[in-house]
Amino acid sequence: MITVEEAQEIIFAKIKTIDSSEIDIQDALGRVLSEDVFSERAIPPWANSAMDGYAVRSEDIKNATKGNPVELKVIERIQAGVKAKSVLREGEAIRIMTGAPMPQGADAIVLQEETEESDSGVVKIYLSVESGESVRVAGEDVEIGDLVVSKGTKLTPPAIGMLANIGMDSCSVYNKPRVAILATGEELVDLKEIPDEGQIFNSNSYALAAQVEEAGGEAILLGIAKDNTEDLVKGIKRGMSADILITSGGVSVGDFDLVKDTLQDLGNEINFWRVRMKPGKPMAFGMLGGNPFFGLPGNPVSTMVSFELFVRPSLLKMQGLKNIFRAKVNATLKGELLKSPERRHYIRAVTTFNENQWESTPLEVQGSNILHSMVKSNSLVLFPEYETKLEDAQTVEVILLDDPNINNN
Q1: How far apart are CA 96 and CA 88, in angstroms?
Q2: According to the model, what pLDDT value does residue 408 have?
Q3: pTM recorded for the entire structure
Q4: How far is CA 318 from the centre of its chain?
């Protein structure tokens, strides 16, 4: 058996960045930018008012106070999107709305609340302001040639807004990896079938498909291959056109665990097939026609945990992301844990942030067949290989599977 880190090193050395395509920015949310984006224009492109008020020459109102207001003649009114026709001269003001371009000759804005305009078109200014007050200067946000969104950025609403702000209606993003999923096992039936005694629904394929989609991939369900070489070969060949093939089940040492041997018989490279971890020890990885193959275990928790540690970061790496791992935190363990040595355990737990510290409470049931434990948990406590006991209140390392407060991509 090899360690988790050794397995990850082998896998990630084989994972290559996928090709890219040009898409509409309206479809780009959550996709990963495949090129640096530089602005060809300044944002804002011209100086404009940051407030509703009056555009003035600051020199004209340098002595204005509440008790000694300065009176200016209002010569024009402009709103956002409208350029002033007049050039502001001494003793004049222009009524201006937020976002409107600064009139020529004006160098400051007096807020509406600090003024009083009469019906005769004269405004009293009750406050002196410095040059530049409430003025958004040209290029304040972005200057021509600035890098606005970097290659490898997962596109969020603000990033897409920035692309639109500089006039881009499309962008180049890495393609979604196509992931073929093949379930194996004589005991499996699909969801529209009625299971006989001894049969179970094929839940792994649907859980894996959801994990693939959550990681930015496109899931392709290949159905179920029964425990015979002919069925396996057909399923594997159907999955060879995808960027990644995942199988679940059939990689252990039972009489009917045929996946590893079938792949080798087809002439494919198997790099490893056991990892020093629990759940998830029986796991195969290799290359299938030049693309990665993951043979995940059949127990549902083992399948999902193995995906989190090996497949998910591979999918993120293929899409050009640099931070491919879930966030880790140090947490206070709530309860005691015991295990035998040699294998690292990933303990399903509920982890919360309370009173300026993380606290992690392991679930009571940890069987690799208990899928409900994955529903209830939001994290995995790392129980190191050669340790046999973790004490209550001990500090432990925790992988956060679902924490909205941490952006780990």
Answers
A1: 12
A2: 37
A3: 0.86
A4: 14
